[in-house]
Amino acid sequence: MSEILLELDNVHVNFPARTNWRGKVTERVHALNGLDLQIARGETLGIVGESGCGKSTLAQLLMGMIKPASGACHRAYNPNSWLGSGMQMVFQDPLSSLDPRLPVWRIITEPVWIQKHNSEAQRRELAQSLALLTGIRPEYLDRLPHAFSGGQRQRIAIARALSAQPDIIVLDEPTSALDISVQAQILNLLVKLQRERQLTYVLISHNVSVVRHMSDRVAVMYLGQIVELGATEQVLTQPRHPYTRLLLDSVPRVDRSLEEEIADNKGELPGNRRLPQGCFFHDRCPLAVEGCRQPQSLRMDASGAGVRCWRAGVISPPAP
Ligand SMILES: Nc1ncnc2c1ncn2[C@@H]1O[C@H](COP(=O)(O)OP(=O)(O)OP(=O)(O)O)[C@@H](O)[C@H]1O
Ligand SMILES: [Mg+2]
Fold first, then answer.
1. Upper half-sphere CA count for residue 44 (Cβ side, 13 Å)
2. Are 172 and 56 in contact (CB under 8 A)?
3. Cα separations (Å) of 167 from 38, 85, 86?
4. CB 3.0 to 4.6 Å from 88: which of 61, 161, 199, 241, for a disulfide?
5. What percent of the chain has pLDDT over 70?
6. Residue 253's pLDDT is what?
7. For ligand 1, atom 27, which residue shows the shortest CA distance?
8. What would the DSSP string read from start to end of 19-73?
9. What pLDDT does 265 receive?
10. What pLDDT score was predicted for residue 315?
11. Whose CA is nearest to atom 6 of ligand 1?
């Protein structure tokens, strides 16, 4: 792997779920439960997993918006820098992530407002160049967000992210709110920008075909852990973790989300208020045996691929 930009080491994040009459927290949601991850410069890392497995929590953690309860999470070259610096995020729903009262040129340059030396003229100039770069018509920059279509609004969100000159952009379901035809345009724009600006992407998506198209590597999450990690083609065509197989089992249909597939076929995701003992997946795993009651760690091989299952090398590969 090329230069490591960011490292997470055994990260745990939880949220209060219930308090008693004295305000004391009596129950917690365990959103991330020992997450290990390295992100390399210039790559696109796809993150997949069912709803509630902790993808957006991971995104917020990377952005420095929430703090881990334990574990380390830092920039590889500067462990003391604030994690969110150099990072920007693009959300699923462009309308709710853009301030409806501001003209688009101001939205786009919002991340640089705090830099006081930016005059209005400078900010307008920046907005113009970012508009050209992202395919927004510069003559529309004085309009409000609601005057734009969904795809155009997502371009605005991307231009806004770029204005801060990030090296990493976290994309949380960037195209799932868009029409199919528009999705491809936005994905192509992201690919173009990545090439031109040497960007690193963390791409969260339910859509396996989006992840396959975009990602160099894929991380599969289950109950706040990474259960499998590796080169995209490898993971998607030769999944080693039983959960990844289950996830991909019925995926040939591009128009369905992972969640729908799972909900139809394999029952509900177990609660993250009380975590399972041992391997988190053993309750649902069709291949579980007695030894799966032991906690599992993500075992990495020399190629950088990893799987959190002690039987991954033993159980037979999936039928082609
Ligand atoms: N601020 C919060 N307070 C309490 N619980 C939270 C909070 N944020 C997330 N959670 C819980 O943490 C778990 C992980 O949520 P998260 O939003 O990270 O899942 P996700 O993988 O992004 O799901 P989706 O695919 O539906 O977006 C869920 O059980 C969720 O309810
Ligand atoms: Mg989410």
1. 22
2. yes
3. 15, 9, 6
4. 161
5. 90
6. 46
7. 51
8. E-TTS-EEEEEEEEEEEEEEEETT-EEEEE--TTSSHHHHHHHHTTSS--SEEEE
9. 47
10. 61
11. 15
Range from 92-106, 253-267, 279-293 carrying the lowest mean pLDDT: 253-267
Question: What number of residues does the chain have?
Answer: 320
Answer whether 257 contacts ligand 1 (Cβ < 6 A). no
| pLDDT at residue 314, as a whole number | 65
CA 240 to chain centre: 21
Q: How confident is the model over 137-155, as pLDDT tens digits?
A: 999 999 999 999 999 999 9
In the chain the domains, ranked by start, together with CATH numbers, are: 8-86+167-314 (3.40.50.300)
Q: From the CB of 51, is ligand 1 less than 6 Å away? A: yes
For residue 224, how far is its CA from the centre of ligand 1 (angstroms)? 10
Residue 55 in contact with ligand 1 by CB distance below 6 A: yes
Whether residue 60 has its Cβ less than 6 Å from ligand 1? no
User: Which atom belonging to ligand 1 lies closest to the Cα atom of 59?
Assistant: 18
The Å distance, Cα 303 to ligand 1 centre, comes to 31
SS3 content of the chain, % helix, strand, coil (to 5): 35, 25, 45
Q: Provide the pLDDT for residue 318.
A: 53
- Tell which residue, 226, 241, 234, has the closest CA to residue 287: 241
Q: Tokens in use for 163?
A: 């204005």
How many A from CA of 57 to the centre of ligand 1? 6
